[in-house]
């Protein structure tokens, strides 16, 4: 007995919204020239009927386009991730479309991760989405999954469940490496300058620091643990707070190079010499780390490779292939330069 495909069609969506099929198609694909009211009616019809496009890439066939969503592009980390994504996309003949959440106010239909935006990713020849340090809401995650949009996270903000595919680095191990280096130099009063407390990579680096301080007979002092943001300005403010303590630290492990550079600037304006009076370790090994004064000791994470791996993994998902791991962590390595030395005296 023959079965009937009961999936709603685009024609049914158009009829429910009171528009032509071509207009419904334009809304689905994000085309211009559609009024806000018409666009809203079509989206409501899509939602109520549970319509999902069937024009995505065929199994085993590489799609032509991938969307990459950044929280911001105003840092070296994001640009290096993009470098890796673009390099891998070029190898596979894929076009990269970049969206930025912090780019300023946008029309609701055009905003990254809006309902209309997600539906556009489910249509046509789009491979899926790479989310960089970006946390979608539960509703956004559910819609991505229900529409079958492959999604890979790079450095996810919050812990991911087993159904989520992510790429990052060994942040805990990196925190251990940085702190061990300072302990081996003889430091015992070591501070931690972190990013936002809810940002998972920074939290993992903090846990590596804490575990190593406890194991290495250092001082775990709440006054030495400060978290704010992954920016130079945050590092400058944290540095001022730490260096003005009655008993300041002799060393600082910063959760990013941007924070570490802010700490270096704070030390300079407090009249301290790095590393003679204060040792500083960063995290990332950005281009700014090697050119800092003094050159920054840091933990290298393979940011460009993270972008490459994320793109390759997304294409595997888009082709219906099995991925090697749902949570890939690439190794970190300590790079010793001139910003660390034994404590004075």
Structure keywords:
six-stranded parallel beta sheet, 345 residues, 12 strands, alpha/beta
Describe this structure in words.
The chain has helices at residues 10-17, 21-28, 36-49, 76-92, 115-121, 138-146, 171-184, 200-215, 232-243, 257-269, 287-291, 303-318, and strands at 65-70, 95-100, 126-132, 151-154, 165-169, 190-194, 225-227, 251-254, 279-284, 297-300, 327-330, 333-335. It has 345 residues and is an alpha/beta fold. The chain has a six-stranded parallel sheet with strand order 2-1-3-4-5-11, with helices on one face. Helix 1 (10-17) packs across helix 2 and helix 1 (10-17) crosses helix 3 (36-49). The chain is elongated. Residues 55-62 have low confidence and may be disordered.
User: Total number of β-strand segments?
Assistant: 12
Q: Determine the N-to-C terminus distance.
A: 88 Å
Uncertain ranges: 55-62
Helix content: 40-55%
Indicate the mean pLDDT: 87
Q: Measured on Cα atoms, how large is the radius of gyration? A: 24 Å
Shape: elongated
**Relative strand content:** 15-25%
- Could you give the order of strands across the largest sheet? 2-1-3-4-5-11
How would a textbook summarize the main sheet?
Answer: 6 strands, parallel
How is the topology of this model organized?
Layout: H1 10-17, H2 21-28, H3 36-49, E1 65-70, H4 76-92, E2 95-100, H5 115-121, E3 126-132, H6 138-146, E4 151-154, E5 165-169, H7 171-184, E6 190-194, H8 200-215, E7 225-227, H9 232-243, E8 251-254, H10 257-269, E9 279-284, H11 287-291, E10 297-300, H12 303-318, E11 327-330, E12 333-335
């Amino acid at each position: 007995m023959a079965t009937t495909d009961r999936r709603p069609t685009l024609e049914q969506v158009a009829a429910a919204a009171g528009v032509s099929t071509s207009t419904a198609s334009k809304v689905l694909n994000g085309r211009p020239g559609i009024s806000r009211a018409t666009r809203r009616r079509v989206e409501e019809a899509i939602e109520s009927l549970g319509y999902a496009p069937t024009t995505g890439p065929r199994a085993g066939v590489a799609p032509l386009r991938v969307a990459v969503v950044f929280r911001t592009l105003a840092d070296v980390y994001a640009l290096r991730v993009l470098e890796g994504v673009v390099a891998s996309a070029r190898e596979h003949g894929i076009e990269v479309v970049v969206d930025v959440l912090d780019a300023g106010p946008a029309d609701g239909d055009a905003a990254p991760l809006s309902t209309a935006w997600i539906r556009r990713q489910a249509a046509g020849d789009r491979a899926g989405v790479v989310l960089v340090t970006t946390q979608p809401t539960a509703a956004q995650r559910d819609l991505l999954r229900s529409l079958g949009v492959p999604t890979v996270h790079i450095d996810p903000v919050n812990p991911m469940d087993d159904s989520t595919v992510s790429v990052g680095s060994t942040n805990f191990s990196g925190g251990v490496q940085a702190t061990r280096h300072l302990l081996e130099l003889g430091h015992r009063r070591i501070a931690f300058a972190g990013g936002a407390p809810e940002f998972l990579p920074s939290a993992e680096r903090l846990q590596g620091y804490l575990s190593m301080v406890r194991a290495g007979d250092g001082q775990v002092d709440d006054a030495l643990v400060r978290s704010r943001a992954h920016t130079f300005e945050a590092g400058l403010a944290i540095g001022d707070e730490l260096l003005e303590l009655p008993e300041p630290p002799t060393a600082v492990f910063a959760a990013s190079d941007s924070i570490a550079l802010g700490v270096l600037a704070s030390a300079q304006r407090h009249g301290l010499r790095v590393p003679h009076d204060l040792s500083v370790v960063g995290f990332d090994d950005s281009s700014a780390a090697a050119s800092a004064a003094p050159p920054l000791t840091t933990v290298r994470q393979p940011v460009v490779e993270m972008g490459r791996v994320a793109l390759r993994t997304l294409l595997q998902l888009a082709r219906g292939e099995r991925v090697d791991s749902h949570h890939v962590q690439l190794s970190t390595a300590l790079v010793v330069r001139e910003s660390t030395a034994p404590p004075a005296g």
